[in-house]
Design brief:
255 residues, alpha/beta, Nucleotidyltransferase, domain 5, five-stranded mixed beta sheet, two-stranded antiparallel ribbon, 11 helices, 7 strands
Length: 255
């Protein structure tokens, strides 16, 4: 195996009620744990989200309300997931923009302080888009030379993502094979939060990446328009984004 591992890495994929990090919920998560010696361990959970699954989401992943009725809620399995990914690194397809932010959000809702900085993360989609812009199914066909069956099943997508990364490492000789280098290559730079609402400018200042104050420094807006912070905290922004903004506010105004 060309992928260099110094500790286990967990490939994972999430199916959800939608794509709004602040409002939607996980309904299925699959984790494939790869150990440095090549051994594998996998686990899939169906989860009761506590809200209806919209038909347009069911049309994508095939999971209906009746499929998750009676299943445990995320808070009931959060510690099991945390134990499986503890002291590992994380990888997924579009995971930097969706799976990781949503996983962190659900952990925070469950009362678990999840520190993503303890993990190196690899987004296979970012590597693919930098090298050969395509979708997951096309990536699988391109790199693995076969069609992806039952796309948008979290377990199928999780295994496919793992296979694609191994194929990418074989194809692109200039790609370094250790997790630290792949983390740096696939990381979206200059984001202060996971969902992309807060960016970091060239001088290292946090700036808004949305709304009427887009491009302006966060601490300057909080100073000029104190009510904006309260509006964000009471709106449907991700908990992690709110946490980052609170840290900025405390850092600037309570020294």
């Amino acid at each position: 195996m060309k992928l260099q591992l110094y500790r286990p890495i967990c490939f994972f994929d999430i199916e959800a009620t939608g794509i709004n990090i602040g409002k939607d919920r996980i309904i299925e998560i699959s984790i494939l744990k790869i150990f440095p010696n090549g051994n594998k361990e996998d686990k899939t959970w169906l989860i009761f989200p506590g809200i209806p699954i919209p038909p347009k989401s069911t049309a994508i992943h095939g999971i209906k309300d009746e499929d998750v009725a009676g299943k445990l809620e995320f808070k009931d399995i959060a510690l099991s997931i945390l134990r499986m990914i503890k002291n590992t690194d994380l990888a997924g397809y579009n995971s930097n923009r969706f799976d990781i932010p949503l996983l962190v959000e659900e952990m925070l809702r469950a009362g678990i302080s999840f520190d993503i900085k303890k993990y190196k993360t690899i987004d296979v989609q970012v590597i693919f888009h930098k090298m050969e812009p395509r979708t997951l199914s096309a990536a699988y066909k391109y790199f693995c030379k076969k069609n992806l069956m039952k796309a948008h099943s979290s377990k199928v997508d999780t295994y496919a993502t793992y296979e694609i990364l191994l194929a990418q490492l074989e194809k692109y000789e200039n790609l370094k094979t250790d997790v630290k280098s792949l983390n740096q290559f696939s990381h979206t730079k200059n984001l202060a939060d996971l969902a992309g609402f807060i960016k970091i400018d060239e001088e290292g200042n946090e700036i808004f990446n949305f709304g009427k104050y887009k491009g302006e420094k966060v601490y300057e807006i909080f100073e000029k328009d104190p009510n904006y912070y309260g509006w964000i905290q009471n709106s449907d922004f991700p908990i992690y984004t709110k946490k980052i903004l609170t840290n900025i506010k405390l850092r600037k105004f309570h020294k």
